[in-house]
Amino acid sequence: MSRSLMVAVVLLLIFGGWGMMEGVICLFLPEYYLEMWIPMMNEELRPASVTEIDALGQNLLEFMTFTTQMLGMVMLLATLLWCVITLIPYRKGEKWSWYALLVMGGFYVCGMLILSYVGMSSHILFGIILALLWIVGIVLPAKEILSKT
Asked: How many CA atoms lie within 13 A of 117 on its CB side?
């Protein structure tokens, strides 16, 4: 395994580790997650705090908590798959894993950047950093992986 491929694997694992961490927070601490991100939203789009949402109606807060937990489960499972693909086939330099990480990461990064730009302007810098991790992790060993027969 070449040095560029090893660096790419580490960068992609950092990307996946962040997703796992956020997935665990969403799944097990959904109200904390909501309380953490509400203040970072743009002034026009910012909803009330979690306690004010709870005062509006219990069903609304339960729905928001449930959807946040489902987001956490999906994010946790997707990043688990991401890390398994990164550690086993991508590290071996298999072509299909390069394409899989390209597509999975592309959907995630594009969606994250669009949502950060629209809703959370203070979150955009973090999104750009994650996008750069993904881009470097995909581009660095691309010639080596795609030139294999």
From this structure: 7
State the DSSP string of 113-143: HHHHHHH-GGGHHHHHHHHHHHHHHHHTTHH
pLDDT at 125: 81
Residue 49, by phi and psi: left (phi above 0), alpha (psi -120 to 50) or beta? Answer: beta
Tell me which residue of 87, 86, 133 sits closest to 108, measured CA to CA: 133
Whether the CB-CB separation of 138 and 102 falls below 8 Å is answered with: yes
In angstroms, rounded to a whole number, what is the distance separating the alpha carbons of residues 99 and 146?
A: 10
Does the pLDDT at position 10 exceed 70?
yes
Question: Model-level pTM?
Answer: 0.83
Structural contact between residues 89 and 96, judged by C-beta atoms closer than 8 angstroms:
yes
Q: How confident is the model at residue 74 (pLDDT cuts 50, 70, 90)?
A: very high
CB 108 within 8 A of CB 75: no
CA-wise closest residue to 35 among 54, 18, 17: 54
What is the secondary structure of 80-103 as a DSSP string?
A: HHHHHHIIIIIHHT-HHHHHHHHH
Q: How far apart are CA 45 and CA 23, in angstroms?
A: 23
